């Protein structure tokens, strides 16, 4: 099997594809807990949210990387397309909730997911893709083609 | 007429309300050009985008401040509600495209618009509201209740 150029990972070891309902039983929520710990989702909650996002069509894409060997979800990420009035009714992609399973890090999998999310935004006609990250992740996103720009502010309820 | 506490602006001089189709002729697009200069929108483009956003219901709110005296739009801002799987299917408000007409600045109008956008996100059940801004605007958003958090990265097509 061919190696993915520069990524140091067997390109066929993982299949990157849109989230499916069956991914609940493939460890999708356990993976997300590595990003933000919280109580497990019920199947009902997962299915409801899945349906809400599906109704947004290509304006909200969740990608997962399935380990071809184990069938488990090893990475995930999302992109939300925002429709604006500025920039002649331009659209912007917001990359959110990128996570790679602790046991699968260091193989270029996160970069592959991010690049696929960026490609989706580009294909939807976005003029830019933005994301927020901790300062430690600047290097990772720079490798994915991003440049630092502005500051993020947050208000927590 | 009563003054809005702390804002130094006559609370009745501006009416803050959701964007309406008629706002195209009240200077909405001229105002947005102060945020990001671009060629004027056609009425068709404006109406199409308006309809697309209306279809998102309360998940995408554009607020404007109409000058009660002149009938012109003096400020605007938007909030987009993102539906996540993390945080037990939590939702996050993204504040975007806040702008105050150059002639109406320094009267607390921007803060009033931002606070109304934040209230909308809170009422929709968001666990936080986030936004990106240039470093010079940190003080303004701190006054609106935001704290600095992380960095914004961007990829421009």
TrEMBL record, chains A, B:
Signal sequence, renumbered to the chain: none
Keywords for the protein's UniProt record, in alphabetical order: Acyltransferase, Endoplasmic reticulum, Membrane, Transferase
Gene Ontology terms describing biological process: N-acetylglucosamine biosynthetic process; root development; UDP-N-acetylglucosamine biosynthetic process
Membrane topology: Peripheral membrane protein
Gene Ontology annotations for the cellular component aspect, listed alphabetically: endoplasmic reticulum membrane
SUPFAM superfamilies documented for this protein: Acyl-CoA N-acyltransferases (Nat) (SSF55729)
Record's subcellular location: Endoplasmic reticulum membrane
E.C. no: 2.3.1.4
Domain N-acetyltransferase: 14-157
Pfam families according to UniProt: Acetyltransf_1
Reactions accelerated catalytically: D-glucosamine 6-phosphate + acetyl-CoA = N-acetyl-D-glucosamine 6-phosphate + CoA + H(+)
A GO MF term: glucosamine 6-phosphate N-acetyltransferase activity
Pathway named in the protein's UniProt entry: Nucleotide-sugar biosynthesis; UDP-N-acetyl-alpha-D-glucosamine biosynthesis; N-acetyl-alpha-D-glucosamine 1-phosphate from alpha-D-glucosamine 6-phosphate (route I): step 1/2
CDD domains reported for this sequence: NAT_SF (cd04301)
Class in the EC hierarchy, top level: transferase
Subunit and interaction comment: Homodimer.
Family membership: Belongs to the acetyltransferase family. GNA1 subfamily.
Name of the featured protein: glucosamine-phosphate N-acetyltransferase
